[in-house]
Amino acid sequence: MFAIIGILVVIGCVLGGFIMEGGNPSTLIVPAELVIIFGAATGAFIISSPKHVLMATVSALGSIFKAKSHSKEHYLNVLGLLYQLFSKMRREGMIGIENDIEHPDKSEIFKKYSSVMANNAIVSFICDNLKVVITGAVQAPDLETLMELEIDTRKHHNMIPAHAVSKIADGLPGLGIVAAVLGVVLTMAKINEPPEVLGHSIGAALLGTFLGVLMCYGFVGPMGTNLEHQAEEDLITFQVIKTAFVAYVGGSPPQLAVEFGRRAIPGHEKPSFAELEASLRKAREK
Fold it and tell me: CA of 276: how far to CAs of 75, 237, 258, 261, in Å?
C-alpha cells in the first residue's frame, strides 16, 4: 500500500511541477523512448542474471506491493512456541521433543501456533537446530556459530533480488543517455527542417535522459531499497530464535531464554515484559 502511495506521489509531484511551469504532459509520452530504455534494461538484466536470480527477483517484486511487517503478535507466537518446546525438553528430557521436531505438522505444540507453522523456513530453522541440541554434543558458543552461519547464508540469499533490482536502477541513467543519443542522431537527419520540428526532436531526445534518471531514482532504485528492508526484517525472527536457543543451551530456564529472545526484537514490534508474561501464561493454560 505504501509503495503505491509513494509511486503516486512521485508521479504527481513531477507531473504537477511540469504543468505548473506551463508544460504539456502529452510531450512526455514517447513510446519509443520507453521501449529503448526498458527493453535494454530487461535484456541487460537477463544477460547478467542466472536463472535462479531471475526467478527470485521476479517473485520478490510482487512483495513490494503486498508485503506486511511482522507484528508484535508474530513475535509473541514465536517466543511462545520456543517456550513450550524448551519446557517440554526440561520436563521430559531431550528425547521428549523428538517426535515434535521430526513431524512438526503432527505436533500438538506446533499446531497451537498456526501462524508460525505457515512459515516453513522458520519451522525448519527451529527443528533443524533442535535436532542438533538433542544430540547433546553441542555447547552454546558452537550452537551460536552454527546458527549464525545459517542466518548469514539466508541473508545472502534474501539480498539477491534487492541487489539485482538495484543494479538495474544503476543502469537506467546510462540507458536513458543511449535513448537520448539515438534521438540526437535522428534529429541530425532533420537538420534542414524548420526550428519547431528540430525543437520537437531535440525535446524527444532529451526525454530519454529524463526518463532514465527518473526511473532510477524515483521508482526502480527505491524498489531495490524496499526489497533490502524486507530481507533485513525477515532475518529478525531468526536472530530472535538464535538468541533464545543459545540462552537455553547455555543453562537459562525456558522463561529466561525467551526473555533473551524478546530483547533481540527491535522497534515498536517488541512486546513488553508484561505482554510476554501474559502470552506465556496463556500458553501454559492451553
Answer: 10, 16, 9, 11
Rounded CA gap, 285 and 282, in Å?
Answer: 5
Sign of the dihedral defined by the CA atoms of residues 273, 276, 282, 286, in that order = negative
User: How many residues make up the chain in this entry?
Assistant: 286
H/E element, 243 = helix 221-249
Buried b (16+ CB within 10 A) or exposed e, 35-49: ebbbebbeebbeeeb
User: For the segment 188-217, what is each residue's pLDDT rounded down to a tens digit?
Assistant: 888 887 877 778 788 888 888 999 999 999
Q: What is the pLDDT of residue 37?
A: 92
> Between helices 273-285 and 254-263, what is the axis angle to 10°?
140
pLDDT value of residue 282: 81
Other C-beta atoms closer than 10 Å to the C-beta of 83 total 24
User: What cell was used for 197?
Assistant: 520540428
Check: CB of residue 245 under 8 Å from CB of residue 222.
no
**Could you identify the residue written with the cell 524448551?**
86
Cα distance between the two ends of the chain: 36
Q: Distance between CA atoms of 136 and 245, rounded to whole angstroms? A: 14
- Cell matching residue 42: 530487461
- In this predicted model, what pLDDT tens digit does every residue of 10-43 receive, in sequence order? 999 999 998 998 888 888 888 888 899 999 999 9
Residue partners of 68: CB distance under 8 A and separation at least 6: none
Between CA 273 and CA 270 the distance in angstroms is 9
